[in-house]
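Technical annex B. To support the medicinal chemistry partners, we prepared a structural model of the target in complex with iron/sulfur cluster, based solely on the information shown next.
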Amino acid sequence: MVTLAYKLLKWYDKNGRHLPWRIKGGAHPNPYVILVSEFMLQQTTVKTVIPYFEKFMQRFPTIEDLASASQEEVYHYWQGLGYYTRAKSLHQTAQQIVSSACFPKTRDEVLKLKGIGAYTASSFLALAFNLPETVIDGNVMRIMARLYALTSPLDEIQDVIREKAENLTDTKCPADYASAIMDLGATICTPKKPKCSLCPWKNDCLSYGRQDIENIPQRKKLPKKQKVGFVYLINNSQGEILIRLRTEKGLLSGLYEFPWAEEKLFKNAKDTGQQVVHIFTHFKLTLNIMVLQIDNIDCDGFFVPVCNLSNYPMSTLMKKVIKAF
Ligand code: SF4
């Protein structure tokens, strides 16, 4: 009998994407390549990741190169990808692996690494070692829900989806199967306008031909929280600008930034009337851009010539501030 996994693998053989971290026909010979790509792909699209991945691998071609680099340099090569905690975790993970002298090969060992959750652990073990792990992310959930016409809200069908996905996973070629199902979700069974006529599972799919296919699976949309704050461009009389290193824990930790906060920090600053808006995973932040000219200021940070700003890794949020002003 021709199984669903077989049909998918046949389709992948011909139609799977060519990606710089991918090798078809089994595990990647270099687990480090998979490790870097998995960290970069967390919350970021393949298209965005490719140029960053290529530059990163040129600078840090081995896990030893990455482990021995400074955090600042790692951040520098991560600039623009966002979610810098990933860069920090990847750096720490590389150091952990180098000090233990081998890559972890069991789920328990992988889960002990910094910044690796259930999904990344499965994906890493499947792609780097061809171990029979089932990867389940938003793509896979959508495909399973449609394939089996699971129309209840997503949070009510998680267990059924897991069971179905595990039953389908090919245990002989788990690396290719993991890549194949990701490609199916990214290129054919897309959230909007799925290309069902090109799908290798069209004859098996219980949702094939349904008009309401885009509504499967059902998701509850939670409104994003709105936050408003102030960002300060502070110049001294030499035309230099004040930046500071963000040390507090969180998304932007370890990056340089202009002082900003949700409450007003400096009474004498002038409002420029300009704003930047940035969408984080759980909230939307609007920052009002304030300016201030002063030589002695009582706050963390230091003045740098504006032309040297690019030497200091900054978040996308701060780059938006620079661009706006
Ligand atoms: S037939 Fe359409 S809905 Fe069903 S799995 Fe394929 S692309 Fe998705």
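Notes passed to the chemistry partners:
Residues 4-215 form a domain with the Endonuclease III; domain 1 fold (CATH 1.10.340.30).
The longest helix spans residues 85-100.
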